[in-house]
Design a protein that fits this description.
The chain is of the alpha/beta class. The chain has 2 domains: 106 residues, Rossmann fold (3-Layer(aba) Sandwich), CATH 3.40.50.720; 167 residues, Rossmann fold, CATH 3.40.50. The chain contains 8 helices and 14 strands. The protein has a 7-stranded parallel β-sheet, with helices on one face. Strand 4, helix 3 and strand 5 form a beta-alpha-beta unit. Helix 4 packs across helix 6.
Length: 291
């Protein structure tokens, strides 16, 4: 297969020699740059946001797409379906670090770690008698895919009651109950913690209304910024994703009370490279060689 691989796959150079045993490869470091080959040459791509800069219509012989992201929101999926192009996401690659990030964020809030850090910087010895426990809390996870399941596993281990909200309703390991999207507004007021992992689609844009959560609740968004409606939010917010990234310097969120901001960093973990290679290699192993 004629493969175009982009720098979105950070470990690409390490694995290209292995792939070249069965495929012809060209490499493009920055996806916004000019293509290093005729688009008609390309039969498969390993990329992230390539089609934001190079319209998919320019690739008449494209038949395989491997994304380095879990989400499909940067790909013209309607065109992919119309043309019958085989597409794969990085399923399961980032689930572990994202789940750990979610739990760590909630624990940081519950255990007052930011306050203690500020006190350390000022050499202040002062106890906090208001620390909370995760045990016994109700956690609502919106999206029961790989990331949601990894989150559920960890919150379950802390003794939480874990409720899932998903498009497809079926019994799922580590969840006490899974319900449909139509019951989300019913569950949010009951949540001590809400974690958003659901993919961004037309159906899920603005799905999670932060104003429905109690003031003592914690909302964690590690999905996409557009899945959450922050209007009227009173709860603690742990936001790793935003509708516009980077977050604008003038955004009121930077200085907002009880808002904790991280720069779309929850997916990072040292095991990602190996998991992504396994994901890519497993699919390409069954593909035909150089055409």
């Amino acid at each position: 297969m004629h493969l175009l691989i982009t720098g979105a796959w950070q470990d690409a150079q390490r694995h290209i020699p292995e792939l070249e045993k069965r495929h012809e490869i060209v490499f493009l470091q920055q996806e916004r740059d000019a293509l290093p080959c005729d688009p008609a040459w390309v039969e498969g791509v390993i990329c992230n946001g390539l089609f934001l800069y190079h319209p998919i219509e320019r690739f008449p012989n494209l038949r395989y797409i491997q994304l380095t992201s879990a989400g499909y929101d940067r790909v013209p999926m309607e065109t992919v379906r119309e043309k019958g192009i085989e597409i794969h996401n990085a399923r399961g690659v980032y689930s572990v670090p994202m789940a750990e990030f979610a739990v760590a964020g909630v624990l940081s809030v519950y255990k007052g770690l930011a306050q203690f850090q500020r006190q350390q910087e000022r050499h202040i010895w002062q106890k906090n008698r208001g620390l909370r426990e995760l045990s016994g809390k109700t956690v609502v996870i919106v999206g029961c895919g790989d990331v949601g399941r990894e989150c559920a596993k960890r919150f379950n281990a802390f003794g939480c009651r874990v409720l899932g909200v998903n498009r497809t309703v079926r019994p799922t390991e580590h969840f006490d109950e899974v319900v449909g999207l139509d019951r989300l507004d019913e569950l949010l007021p009951r949540a001590d913690v809400a974690v958003v992992t659901i993919a961004l689609t037309d159906e899920t844009r603005g799905l999670v209304k932060a104003r429905l959560l109690r003031p003592d609740a914690v909302l964690v968004n590690i999905s996409r910024g557009g899945t959450v409606d922050l209007t009227g939010a009173r709860c603690e917010l742990l936001l790793d994703v935003f509708e516009t990234e980077p977050l604008e310097e003038q955004s009121e969120l930077w200085a907002a009370d009880r808002v904790h901001i991280t720069p779309h960093n929850s997916f990072v973990g040292e095991g990602n490279g190996e998991r992504l290679w396994e994901c890519i290699h497993k699919v390409l192993e069954g593909k035909e060689g150089v055409s």
